[in-house]
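Record passed on here:
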Amino acid sequence: MPSVTTTTANNGGAPAIDKKIIPQLSSTQPSSPVEWIEKAREVGRILEVDAVERDKANGKPEHEVNLLKQAGLITYLQPAKFGGGGGTWEVAYKLIRTISEYDGSIGQLLGYHLLWSWLAYVLFDNEKYEAFIEPHTRNRSFFGGAVNPRDADLTIRDEGDSIVFNGVKSFSTGGRISDVTVLEGVLDGTDKHIFSFVPTNQPGIQFKGDWDALGQRLTESGGVVIDDVRVPWEGAAGWDPVAKTYTPIPYHTITLPLIQHNFSNKYLGIAIGGLRFAQQYTTSKTRPWPASEGGRGHDNALEEWYILEGYGVLYAGVRASEALHDQVGAAISKLAHAPKESLTPEQRGIIAAEVATAKVSIVDHALHLTSKVYELTGARATSSKVGLDRFWRNVRTHTLHDPIAYKKTEVGAYYLEGRLPKPTWYT
């Protein structure tokens, strides 16, 4: 494991990964899925060293994002001819999961970035997409998004050759450490939504810096004020800039199941990380219950039946969910990388139901696992210095993004009646 020191960054005195560690990453770009996953694990091991301290500091994850850039992970899905990985969502989900094992916040940042940068592919035609994504791939731009459906939509004024965004969003993951911000709003006088990709560093984008949640503390997900951000009509993704019209196709809605599976792979990764962290603690520090207090008189905690039973159940649940996530990830990846015009409403509905099924398989188990491990590690594991609590806090925080109860009902309706979920902002 690389040796890591911390330094004080310009983020309110919070410790951050020292820039000196970044050159320790191997400079060769991976050439196979196995190598990409190992690269993510290499990054994860660096993040793990001071994960507890950085979580407590709640600072801006500038060096962490730089680490993702240096590793090439943020350009994994982007065209190889521009220096990207030319990869697939099937493997991208495993990269998100792997980073989340070590640091759930940074796994979230990677996941959202991959989704937002892929949105450009979804909405633009191939020629416009390549013209747009080439400089961002070569520069390893990091994407954030001021998109939150539960808030009022941003308003968009049509001013002839350009459109102008205004409004406020409560959450903007990646905010202050992004290079590109995704904006979404409704064109005045219509019910038509427009997405645009704009430079983050401009006067009209003012981040509040108010993210201070129970978990996922380094996701830079605070609020943002959008004040007269002007975009040429050519930047209205998916729109005809001359006729000012938009023609939807089913593929344009694939980003919703893509991001939902993104979320549940993050939860799975956090659960795997929490279980591994607890295992390491139990095998090195947990003590057996003494015979004088009614215990079995074992010499080693690993002989305690309830510890063996507990880890067995938790591990089996994770492995089962992992297999399902891989299966669903392969299926949605196949659809995402097929010709856009080939996706049918039925295919889109089926994959949304399968994505919901995978999510249901992990949310409750991850919440249970990240709490249950305390019974298997012992009272001393509750010390804040240990940092075991961050796994539960991270899962608990983001699983509230949208109610899992609704996903359970979608799965039930799909199984009992064959009813397919309708496209929404959360399905």
Summary: The mean pLDDT is 94. The longest helix spans residues 345-377.
